[in-house]
Prior knowledge:
By secondary structure, the protein is α/β, with parallel strands linked by helices. It has one domain: Flavodoxin domain (Rossmann fold, 3-Layer(aba) Sandwich). The protein contains five helices and seven strands, in the order E-H-E-H-E-E-H-E-H-E-E-H. The protein has helices spanning 14-27, 44-48, 66-79, 99-110, 129-148; strands at 2-8, 32-38, 52-60, 63-64, 87-94, 115-116, 121-124. Strands 1, 2, 3, 4, 5, 6 and 7 form a seven-stranded mixed sheet that branches. Strand 1, helix 1 (14-27) and strand 2 (32-38) form a beta-alpha-beta unit. The longest helix is centred in the last third of the chain and has 20 residues, at 129-148. The chain is globular. Residues 10-16, 58-62, 93-98 line the site of flavin mononucleotide.
Amino acid sequence: MKTLLIVFHTGGVKTAQMAEAVERGARGEESVRVVMKRCAEAGPEDVLAADGLILGTPENFGYMSGMMKDFLERIFYACEGKVEGRPWALFVGAGQDGSGAVSSVERIVTGLRLKKICEPIVVVKELRPEQLAACEELGAAMAAGLAAGIV
Ligand SMILES: Cc1cc2nc3c(=O)[nH]c(=O)nc-3n(C[C@H](O)[C@H](O)[C@H](O)COP(=O)(O)O)c2cc1C
């Protein structure tokens, strides 16, 4: 059975709501094990055990959240060279921008040589129903791709 890992941080509610929507979509694929953890709870063993990874973070001070950076710092060297080619995706909850969170996560994940399966979902200002639906679709697509062996 393939495993999809969702790791996120939220300082409020928006990124958590996005994460819940991603998880909801992924859980529609019953043949894939879905594990969702906060950054503080997740570690290298979770990433090594996962066939696919979806990360979610707010943008804070033009960068990913401190908790997401801490997570990536803790997993990087333990996972470097061991997760090449596995699919990954990103969602960001931001106030008015989001590009700093995207570029900072992408720069680090590039070093792990994961395979980006789609452009990041970035939500600025209010979280709208269609954006929640996009998050749900992201989870569903990643899980379906893992189940079919095509991502
Ligand atoms: C300390 C702090 C710094 C922030 N810096 C930025 C920023 O640089 N760019 C931006 O677009 N939003 C920024 N925001 C707004 C958050 O990204 C936005 O409120 C986001 O929706 C928070 O997601 P959350 O509710 O999941 O914590 C900042 C918020 C906080 C608390």
